[in-house]
Design brief:
Layout lengths: L2 H24 L6 H11 L10 H24 L4 H19 L13 H19 L1 H6 L6 H21 L2 H15 L15 H9 L8 H22 L2 H13 L5 H13 L6 H19 L3 H14 L10 H9 L3 H30 L12 H6 L5 H11 L4 H16 L9 H35 L1 H15 L4 H20 L4 H11 L1 H10 L6 H13 L9 H10 L3 H11 L6 H7 L10 H23 L8 H15 L3 H20 L10 H8 L1
Helix pairs in contact: 2-13, 2-26, 3-4, 3-10, 3-20, 4-5, 4-10, 4-20, 5-7, 7-8, 7-9, 7-20, 8-20, 10-15, 10-19, 10-20, 11-12, 12-13, 12-14, 12-16, 13-14, 13-26, 14-16, 14-26, 14-27, 15-23, 15-25, 16-29, 18-19, 20-23, 21-22, 21-24, 22-23, 22-24, 22-25, 23-25, 25-28, 26-27, 29-30, 29-31, ...
Length: 691
């Protein structure tokens, strides 16, 4: 049989397997680990890898271990010079990507194509060029040599192709567009025009300076991020993922609409160690979505709960999908300040989803799970030690330990803690698995940060970020009547830009792109208007909206992954996810307009009052989204409740003075008005409630 026929047969087998999985999930059954892996391959580019055996499989296995050992060594004993550290890191990643990721989805998984061997060899040559000729390169004066231009050009192409395979097409399209913009600068319209970069200047800046591929994003990947991903891999080997699920069941399973609240709680916990909305959706959703469907939630709503919760996991400290470590460099803030600032918004995000699911469960009369479907609380408490490594790294960071040391100590503490019980123990086999899985997880991040470095480099050389930011502020100014309105409109335009730029990109690349392109618009407000938006608040604003792109139609990767489990409709699932995560579309405006919510220059009393009014506002907005509060409410009360919620969440005393009395009145009316025209109840419902 020819290779083309074999590929066609493999593609048909894959399609049949996907159909079988979807039929299984439509019946409310849970997925096995193998079926979860297949579903992730379908929706998550980072999971679409080959399954290699024989000599090639062993070779890749050894390279993965070597990659992790290299990072542990440099974390323990100090990094090499910036260029050497980053190119060795990139070299490992590119070689492994071309060996593990086929050129196209559905490509042969059991062997490596001849051209992938060639690309892997080129990756070694290109990334090995810096360590071998380091002294020559740093001492030369002027432009690059012809050989260096060839090396640099190949490096750019390898990074683009590696990113396409390991991360997906969207980030490659953006990076390629920026390269074109850099070269054809003089031909760009209006304010976007610039002097342009020659081919020599472009290649040199992209690979022979720290302003391009080898810039800050890759620097963070080659130090902080890799070690924390490795820490997460060791945690997974203790069974902490399953423990999070059991803990969520024990805490939330009995409550009204239990499975939905289990999904929220479990996804928040898994988000602390997961770097992907899609991966979080598939792993936790494989058992929470079937539970929700069996209890009575509609398939589109069940998928939306998991997608919204899993996406929120990327906003959850301490790791925040690895973006927290990038924010250290981009925002110039300490890790502790970033984690502290992210805490209250993340908790409000999950509280908002919890409120909406609670009202939905009350509306359709869903109860919690029966006791026989819940894990024994004593058994859950026996494994509480698995949370110690996470507590330990937070404490170490608070004590001022470096991020690299904290991650290494976290790994050591995880291994030590795992020894408490036989079923959680990390033996030699699990130790090796953790090394290889940590390196695998880092491949997508390395490719994404290298590719995002191209974008950052072009923006740095052309000043595009500032130009784009000024354009948004000017457009907002022409549509505004006053400074406050211009501020709000600029934030709206920045929100839209961040959502568009964030579609289809992993968390790390997502934040790099939005903070490079969309962020300058907010910072420009500080220069052009009489406002003072804190830098950290601006970074958090674009970060939030870049993340919610994972549930915002039409792309909505997390929602699409959830429908693969629920059997629902992607657009409706995405729409429901947006409704559930409505807080994520409001909270960022809160911390720009009132930075105290990020615990910036504030007191405990100020923060407490802000949280109280925000919770009241989310209750009102949640009720308006579902159409149910303490009882069913009609359309006109839903509108009033929504506006009341906006008043309560909008920062400032005047809005609270309006919102609080109306909120209290709405609550009182639902208890006082009985009989008569109660909030949307028909006669049968009234009779039932009175009886």
């Amino acid at each position: 049989m020819s290779d083309s026929k074999k590929q066609q047969e493999e593609q048909k087998d894959l399609e049949r397997e996907n159909e079988r999985i979807e039929e299984k999930m439509a019946g409310g059954e849970e997925l096995s680990q193998e079926e979860q892996a297949k579903l992730m391959e379908k929706y998550d580019a980072e999971s679409n890898t080959r399954d290699l055996t024989g000599i090639i499989g062993k070779t890749v296995f050894i390279i993965l271990i070597a990659f992790s050992l290299f990072q542990i060594y440099t974390g323990m004993f100090g990094q090499y010079t910036a260029y050497v550290q980053r190119t060795v890191h990139l070299g490992f990643a590119l070689v492994l990507i071309f060996m593990l990721f086929p050129a196209r989805r559905g490509g042969p998984k059991g062997k490596v194509a001849w051209y992938d061997y060639l690309l892997a060899i080129l990756s070694i040559i290109v990334c090995g060029y810096w360590p071998v000729y380091y002294d020559t390169i740093v001492q030369q004066i002027g432009g690059s040599t012809d050989a260096q231009l060839v090396i640099g050009s190949i490096a750019i192409l390898l990074v683009l192709e590696g990113s396409r395979r390991a991360v997906g097409l969207p980030i490659v399209i953006v990076a390629a567009a920026f390269l074109i913009y850099a070269y054809f600068g003089p031909y760009m319209p209006g304010a976007l025009a610039h002097r342009g970069l020659s081919l020599n200047q472009l290649v040199t800046s992209m690979f022979f300076t720290t302003e391009g591929i080898l810039g800050t994003p890759l620097a963070v990947s080659s130090t902080y991020i890799f070690l924390f991903l490795l820490f997460g891999a060791f945690l997974v080997q203790t069974g902490v993922g399953s423990y999070f699920n059991d803990l969520a069941l024990a805490i939330a399973g009995k409550r009204t609409g239990g499975p939905a609240k289990v999904a929220i709680f479990s996804s928040a916990l898994n988000g602390t160690i997961s770097g992907s909305s899609v991966a979080n959706t598939v792993t936790t959703g494989s058992y929470t979505i079937p539970m929700m469907k069996r209890l009575g939630y509609h398939k589109n709503f069940a998928g939306a709960v998991e997608a919204a919760s899993s996406t929120g996991g990327q906003l959850m400290p301490p790791i925040m999908g690895a973006a927290a470590f990038l924010m250290i460099e981009f925002a110039g803030e300490s890790y502790w300040d970033i984690a502290k600032a992210a805490t209250i918004p993340a908790l409000l995000y999950f509280t908002g989803i919890w409120i909406v699911t609670h009202f939905e469960a009350k509306r359709i009369g869903l109860l919690g799970l029966p006791a026989d479907q819940l894990p024994p609380k004593k058994e859950v408490l026996k494994k509480i030690h698995l949370l110690l490594p996470i507590v330990a790294i937070v404490w170490l960071l608070f004590q001022g330990f470096s991020i690299e040391r904290t991650a290494l100590y976290g790994i050591a503490i995880t291994i030590l803690v795992s020894l408490f019980r036989k079923d959680t123990r990390i033996n030699f086999s699990r130790f090796i698995i953790a090394l290889t899985s940590g390196a695998r997880t880092a491949l997508g991040v390395a490719a994404a940060t290298a590719c995002a470095g191209i974008i950052v480099g072009v923006v740095t050389r052309t000043g595009l970020g500032l130009k784009f930011g000024n354009m948004l502020v000017d457009i907002a100014g022409t549509l505004s009547f006053n400074v406050e309105m211009q501020l709000i409109l600029t934030l709206v335009f920045t929100m839209i830009a961040s959502i568009i730029l964030g579609m289809g990109s992993p968390t790390t690349a997502n934040y790099i792109i939005t903070s490079t392109i969309a962020l300058p618009a907010i910072l420009a407000l500080n220069d052009q208007l009489d406002v003072a938006v804190p830098v950290l608040a601006a970074h958090m604003f674009v970060f939030y909206f870049g993340i919610v792109a994972d549930i915002t139609p039409p792309v909505a990767l997390a929602a699409f992954a959830a429908t693969g489990i629920s059997g629902g409709e992607p657009m409706r699932t995405g729409g429901n996810a947006v409704k559930l995560a409505i807080a994520a579309f409001i909270i960022p405006y809160m911390f720009v307009l009132q930075p105290q919510i990020l615990m910036i220059d504030t007191t405990v009393w100020e923060v407490s009052f802000i949280i109280l009014t925000a919770l009241m506002g989310m209750n009102a907005i949640g009720a308006s989204m579902v159409g149910y509060w303490y009882r069913k409410i009609p359309w006109y009360v839903r509108i009033i409740a929504f506006l009341t919620g906006i008043f309560l969440m909008y920062p400032g005393t005047p809005s609270d003075v309006i919102g609080i009395p109306i909120f209290v009145l709405l609550i009182v009316l639902q208890f006082v008005i009985k009989g008569g025209p109660t909030f949307g109840k028909n006669k049968k419902e009234q009779a039932a409630s009175q009886s």
